[in-house]
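User: Second chain of the day. Same drill as before.
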Amino acid sequence: TWNPFFAERVGESAVGRTNLAFDLLDDWSIHFAFQGIRREVERAYAAAFDTAKLVTANAEGTLALAHRYGRTDAVLLLNGTDPERFSTISRATGGPTIGYVGKIGRRVDLDLIVASAHSLPTATFVFAGPILDSEYRRPLERLPNVRLLGDVHYDDVPALLETFDLGWVPHRVGEGEVGGDVIKTYEYRAAGLPVLSTPVAGVTKRGLSGVTVLEAASHAEWLVNKFDRSPRLQRSPEAIPTEMTWKHKAKVILDGLGV
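Assistant: Same format as last time:
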């Protein structure tokens, strides 16, 4: 489970540690969505860490969370992708297409998106994912070159990425980060897409090629310069390391449980 409240319930009826794997995807103790129940989250974490036989953490931030609760045996187990699902074929047409796949909320830098969309009016900025925070909807809908697709099923993501020229990670740095590992970067690179990201935690430590990391203030200028001569960017295939695949992650967890 990735849910501390579920692990807490399991622990209520258990004696000692159970054959449960607790996989840390985000640090809920600092997540903005759980601010109103912070005390309950911390209680659930304490019980979950006492209950789980195996604790895995998807990033340096969630590993630190486990250590704070005394689980120094926690295993760093990154997120990843299913690389065989993705094609490096480009089906992009028209002007530049800058794409984002993921939830749209406070983790996303709205000011950065607005500034970039204004700076590159010939480009289309595509956002595939649910809007979690209502204050994001109207500013994005007002931008004529922003397309909001809503939630897109994982099975449909590979075909969508074929229509992008660039995979974007316009995330806030510091306040708004939740300690986890950014999945979309792996997906973008599995599709051969060049990637532009803000310097979120861990992004420079994954060893992936084709990933440009810049402060938010430099994104608009970089995008304008990159698409100055052509609407298309060259794709570059990436051999996704085994340890950055879901198959590997599942195997580590099953082996850790002795299954």
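The radius of gyration is 19 Å.

User: Great, on to the next one.
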